[in-house]
Structures are given as structure tokens and as C-alpha cells.
Amino acid sequence: MKAIVAKKYGSAEVLQLKEVEKPIPKNDEVLIKVYATTVTAGDCELRQFKMPALFWLPLRIYFGIIKPRINILGQELSGEIESVGKEVTEFKKGDLVFGSTQIRFGAYAEYVCLPSKYAIVIKPDNMSFEEAAVLPTGGLNALHFIRKANIQQGQKVLIVGAAGSIGTLAVQMAKSAGAEVTCIDSTEKLDMLRSIGAAHVIDYTQEDFTKSSKNYDVIIDVVGKSPYARTVKSLNQNGRYILGSPSLPGMIRGLWTSMTSDKKILFELAGYKKEDLFHLKELFQAGKIKPVIDRRYPLKQMSEAHRYVDQQHKKGNIVITISEQPTGQGY
């Protein structure tokens, strides 16, 4: 089968299209024919191994000290069940599914084996394979942040770094919860943010939200770039500040702030649960969320797709199409 393989850490050029052995599912696994996958900021960070200091050493040990131990990246996918292990009862050959590869990765290939207990669910007919492929990573993280924020009707919510795969879904979920949503990102992304429900937008290249007199009930920093002390001052009484990409100093300061004030700083990382992916599927079917897709690339242009994401210009999601998709199922 064809796959994108990285034998070393580095630039987008380390990604090479190769022929590799097709995997065989174990007893508790499913073999998925991959129709679509994505390029996330996380994929690019892992390719270069640009990780936060807090997680650098344990992740380097897991992924490989000198060179990558996991050669095929890809965190999420949509596709079709090709075969199942003898212990699998939840899926059968021919099921159209989408889900997360979690710590296995491997979606940059024509086929991947994953445990059936992973966050994998049946794709609804009204969801395209492209939409399905981009939903797990951004959606599960966005859902986690929105739940931690405990957003209520009428609250003012600020989302920093709102135009990425997580942010675009968090905007829609917050709006669906009845919040007045303000989004921060770069100039060329603001119109898209308005189109998905942002009541207000801020261009961070022109304006510092912490210097405004406006305060918020919830601030979600997806990218970890908001100045901590000034951001806390921008919270209303009993406000909540979600650190989506926490640093160790930020976590320590957050614990202190939470203990010594009425404001709560939250930084628990998202889990990847099957029931949460079911919930995202329900939100999609109810019309409450719709993934934003910026660009599409074939598998052979993976390096080009990674270079585009490296430039930090993407709006929402980047889709990679792999195998020819069946007609009449979401298209």
C-alpha cells in the first residue's frame, strides 16, 4: 500500500511517498481503508518535534530519541472497514466510519489498523468523508474546552486563535450554547470567523484585547499565546480561563490564581472518548456544527500541505484525500 513515511525529524521534505506492507488487524482491531485524513498543526509539530518544554522529554522517549519510531503520521481519518478481528462485534466489513488514530497515528496511508475501542464511529449519510475526517481532533478538543468552560446562555466568550481546527468548532459550540462570541486571529481569517457565528472579531496584529475595557465570562486560549496576567484581568468575576496549550509556568500560576481568587484557570488536556465522538456526530446532524475546510490535497502532495500549515495561514482544516471514495455516501 502507499503511505507517507518520515524516517527523520525535520522540514516537510522528510515526508516521502513509499510502498509499505499492508497491516493485518489483531483480534481486537479493525482494518480501515482510508478515504481522507488531515494535516493539523500537531502533525507539523511532531514532524519537526517542536514540542512544549513540559512534554518534550516524555514525548521524545515515546516517539523516538534520534529518529521517529512512528514513521507514518496522521491523527484522524474517515474511511471504510475493510476487515475486523475475531473479537470485534461493534463493526463489520463495509461500515463507513470516522475517528481518531490517537497515539497510534498512521492515517497518512491507504490502510490503518486501530483498536475497535478507539474513538471510531459510524459516519452519517449527510456527512461527507472530508467533513468526517476533520471532525475528531478539532472537535474532541473543542468539546472538551467548551465543557470545561461551562458556558451559559448570554455569557461573553473570547476565543484566542479561533480560526484553526479546534477554534472554528469551539466558536460554533459556544454560539450554540447561547454565548456572545468574540474571536481573535489574523486579518485574513476574520471574515470566515464572522461567517461561522462570531459576534465580534479582533485582529491581533492591530489590537491587544487586554488593553480594552471589555471583560469576558470565559476566555479560551487555543494556541497559548495570550499574556497570562493581563488575560486574567480581562475576566469578569467568577470568570474561567481555559489554557488550551499550557506551559508549566502557566499551570503553576493558574493553580495559584484559582486558589486565591474567584477566577478559575483550567488546563486539563482533552481525552479521546468514543462517546464524545458520538456527541459530535449528533451536533453535526442537528446542524449545530459544520467543519471548516480550507484546502484539499492528494496524498502525493503531503509535503506541500505541511508547508502550507507551517505558514500558519490555514483557516479551519486541511484535508488529504487518499483512496477513491464511494459515491452516494455524503457526496
TrEMBL record:
Ranges in coiled-coil conformation: none
Gene3D superfamilies associated with the record: Medium-chain alcohol dehydrogenases, catalytic domain, NAD(P)-binding Rossmann-like Domain
Enoyl reductase (ER) domain: residues covered: 10-320
InterPro entries named in the record: ADH-like_N, Chloroplast_QOR, ER, GroES-like_sf, NAD(P)-bd_dom_sf
SUPFAM superfamilies: GroES-like, NAD(P)-binding Rossmann-fold domains
Highest taxon listed in the record's lineage: Bacteria
Pfam family, one: ADH_N
Molecular function (Gene Ontology), one example: oxidoreductase activity
Name of the protein this chain belongs to: 2-desacetyl-2-hydroxyethyl bacteriochlorophyllide A dehydrogenase
Organism: Marinococcus luteus
